[in-house]
Amino acid sequence: MLTYDLSQRDDTPLYEYLYELIAADIRQGRLGANKKLPSKRALAKHLGVSLITVEGAFSQLVAEGYVRAVERKGYYVCDLTPAAAPVAAIAPAPVQAPERVAVDKPLTCAFDLRGGSLSEAFPYDAWARSLREALSQESEATLVGPQEPLGTLRLRRVLANYLGEFRGMSVSPDQIVIGAGAQYLYNMIIQLLGAGVQVAIENPGYPRLEHIYRVNRVPVAHIPMDDQGIRVDLLGASGANLVHLTPSHQFPTGLVTSAPRRYELLSWASQDGKRFIIEDDYDCEFRLAGKPIAPLQRLDAQGQVIYTNTFTKSLGSAFRIGYMVLPPALADRYERELGFYSCTVSAVDQLALARFIESGAYERHVNRMRTQYRALRDQLMEALRTSQLAPRLSFAAQDSGIHFLLGLRSFASGEELQRRALEQGVAISCLQSFYQGKHAEEGDVRWLVVGYSSLDPAQVGPCVRALEAAWLEG
Amino acid sequence: MLTYDLSQRDDTPLYEYLYELIAADIRQGRLGANKKLPSKRALAKHLGVSLITVEGAFSQLVAEGYVRAVERKGYYVCDLTPAAAPVAAIAPAPVQAPERVAVDKPLTCAFDLRGGSLSEAFPYDAWARSLREALSQESEATLVGPQEPLGTLRLRRVLANYLGEFRGMSVSPDQIVIGAGAQYLYNMIIQLLGAGVQVAIENPGYPRLEHIYRVNRVPVAHIPMDDQGIRVDLLGASGANLVHLTPSHQFPTGLVTSAPRRYELLSWASQDGKRFIIEDDYDCEFRLAGKPIAPLQRLDAQGQVIYTNTFTKSLGSAFRIGYMVLPPALADRYERELGFYSCTVSAVDQLALARFIESGAYERHVNRMRTQYRALRDQLMEALRTSQLAPRLSFAAQDSGIHFLLGLRSFASGEELQRRALEQGVAISCLQSFYQGKHAEEGDVRWLVVGYSSLDPAQVGPCVRALEAAWLEG
Questions:
Q1: Closest CB from A128, A184, A191 relative to B344
Q2: Any CB–CB contact under 8 A between B194 and chain A?
Q3: Cβ of A317 and B342 within 8 Å?
Q4: What's residue B335's pLDDT?
Q5: Best residue in A135, A136, A213 to probe B by mutation, most B CBs within 10 Å?
Q6: Is the ipTM beyond the 0.90 threshold?
Q7: B140–A contact, CB cutoff 8 A
């Protein structure tokens, strides 16, 4: 039976502490592949903790791919050794002239299920207060004097601290670069890595990513996903030396990259010092069940993971502040080679954000949003489950982030369902539309990506009625 | 005798109106090359205006290269036809790995003559008021809702209007793109023009420009200047299809590109629809004598001039807002191909700036700064002229922008003078240091670039004493 000393746990919740101990044993091989774990009830009794604690730890282990649950049998340790890579080579797509980009024009629709953030929940008063405080309490020299190219040290310290507390990352402020949004920071990464960068992105994935690399004349390979994450065998065959990932919550599939796949990715990078991984942690704050997934950055011993995040999902898309955490060697290179770039965020905004986080207003806001989103998700899923569409529906990836996948058995294609929804006033995207290249829809289930964050609770009922009208016929 | 109807002039000052009429006659060939203009006194009498009015018009015509003054003889019309281009080819420098960049670390010096803006003159209260007003008077939806990728329409309208009033430019808000500083906008221009861009920059010039193009893997050619501006013959031979200029006030020489040279540049561009000119109008607000030089953009009939400007020189380097004016066809292309980029400036800042300009606070600030700079320049030049260095000094380019050139007869090199000044606590750059490649200092006059804007009036005396200590010996 697994025996752990749970008395050393500081402030960590008990279930999380237990999860950490078991995960460490699996990583270090003390719990080998395919070993069966004791039953939850037996382990709870053995350790003298509640059943809920063990359940919390186990579900986190399952979410991160350390352990798999086998129905009616129990929990088994997964195999963390990277799989051997067979598979045909996929060359990166040749660099092409940028295509016409469909900028998301505001559609005339009553209900928008394409994501975007809940602007009504923007903590307007608290933010305005932080701005006013920065204006009145900081010295003029601080606000309008010469600025540090990486960003204001005070904000970088606050972010380092925040990442330590909430993401378990051990980061120096010297590794952090602040910039006007993630898009800007990706441009800086491309310039930092220099000539010869070839990037791989997830397929399906976030379409604007490809645009950014294309207009920077970087060859792009689209790498398929399986149920563990991006396929590292195909990544290796693609010739790419940079991979851009959303491992904590893949967009749009919602998939959490499994622990074995994370090690495979790190193993891929470690084979060549010029390989890098961009970990885009875009909605880590909004895991709605269990604890947030530990970032890849924490497992990176070789300095090959570049962590990026913004405040777009938590504070709104008008809020143009993002940051990246560079491995120490790249941070040095940034200062040396790109240090001539001035920081693109005004000092007033940076200091207001530092105050906003320090005061606890940011955390309170995120907690409030998480609660609202959870309620909204539950309300919407319940309305769908009790709708006339119910017998044909299935759900996936509803536990994290602010979108989930809705499966609908249908003879129509995903794009047809999307079009019919729009005719009824619902803007929604089919999963199919996020694929690059040919991707046949299999079986009779069509998947829609439901980004519910800009929906008002009062809209849920009418929105589901509109979807019924759109989709009831086959 | 030249005869003009001066009664139609609206609000334009009389001297400027007269200047415009004569310049138009020269451009359209009604006043041919080498024609002698009437004497100032005779023309004033003939037109029934004051001598001061004619003097103002003539000195503007001379400043812009329409007319040249021949001592004791009078004023003659310049030849505006582009010179034929002979000259050996200069290949753009091959793309090299970015070099180590010397980021301007704050030197430990008592007096900083390297430019930078006068942060004490930042209109802090007026700006904070505009920010507070934007926060309290704009709707939440405006501030935190979805934003236009080109920038807030209101600010683009205000800028179009401002450019019309102060630079005589006829510009639609649709042509304006707002971004977090000039460096960011140059990145966007590179991505907009796409693969195959080869840029030419002025030599001597602004060193960070080269860094930006280099890290974007754009080949860079350094084109020498003569007394009219950049040498278009060498530009043509370089193979570049983009030229990045500071025609209104070249940095660091202070040279104003002459009218004939402006037409040569436009003629160069018009020979190939894929050639473009970036007109960097970085300190147009600070012409200290005469009226500001008309921008190249106004003369551009083919849509090949991209005008860029920022608020860095007028509001401080911490103020990260810049804008560019694209020719209509490029503006369309920007929306189509780069419209997926979110605007990098927060809506609050954009609306605060729009209010700041609309309220007249910006214009008042610039006028106040211009007066301060003029007084500071006069005080510094007077202190130099009455110093022990006086017999060895000469001055150039003191009428526009916030730096001038100081010539010192010396046996030492410019770099040696720079080093000796720093030993005495004065940070100052020699002109030589802005040259790329080999450039021998000729004769016995060494030129220093005096950026006086961050000097306090009380520092002028001690600063000149320090320069005496540094340079008195040869």
A1: A184
A2: yes
A3: yes
A4: 95
A5: A135
A6: no
A7: yes
Overall average pLDDT of the A279-295 stretch: 78
Mean pLDDT, range B283-308, rounded to an integer: 84
Peptide bond connecting B204 to the previous residue in cis, omega within 30 degrees of 0: yes
* CA-based nearest residue to B215, from A329, A213, A190: A190
Beta bridge partners of A79: none
For the ranges A33-42, A221-230, B84-93, the lowest mean pLDDT is seen at B84-93
Helix axes B40-47, B51-63, angle to 10 degrees: 120
Summarised one tens digit per residue, pLDDT across range A25-56 is 887 778 888 888 888 888 888 888 888 888 88
Among B244, B199, B239, which Cα is nearest to B89's?
B239
pLDDT in tens, B10-42: 777 788 888 888 888 887 778 888 888 888 888
B107 touches chain A (CB under 8 A): no
**Structure-block tokens of residue A237:** 């065959």
Name the pLDDT band for B83 (thresholds 50, 70, 90). very low
E runs forming strands in B78-175: 111-112
Q: Which residue of B has its CA nearest to A141?
A: B119
Helix extents (H) in A145-206: 153-167, 182-193
Q: Check pLDDT > 50 for residue A97.
A: no
Binary contact (A340, B211; C-beta < 8 A):
yes
The secondary structure of B186-248 as a DSSP string is HHHHHHHH-TT--EEEEES--HHHHHHHHHTT--EEEEEEETTEE-HHHHHHHT-SEEEE-TT
* Cβ distance of A101 and B339 shorter than 8 Å: yes
- The closest CB to that of B180, out of A180, A195, A319, belongs to A180
At residue A394, the 3 state secondary structure works out as strand
**Could you give phi then psi for residue A306, rounded to 5 degrees?**
-105, 115
Cβ(B424)–Cβ(B469) below 8 Å: yes
Tokens 């608020």 correspond to: B311
For residue B282, give the nearest of B181, B363, B352 by alpha carbon.
Answer: B181
Nearest CA in chain A to B139: A124
**Which range among A409-413, B6-10, B249-253 shows the weakest confidence by mean pLDDT?**
B6-10
Closest among A332, A303, A308 to A322, alpha carbons compared: A308
Rounded Cα distance, B57 and B46, in Å: 15
* DSSP β-ladder status, A199-203 and A220-226: parallel
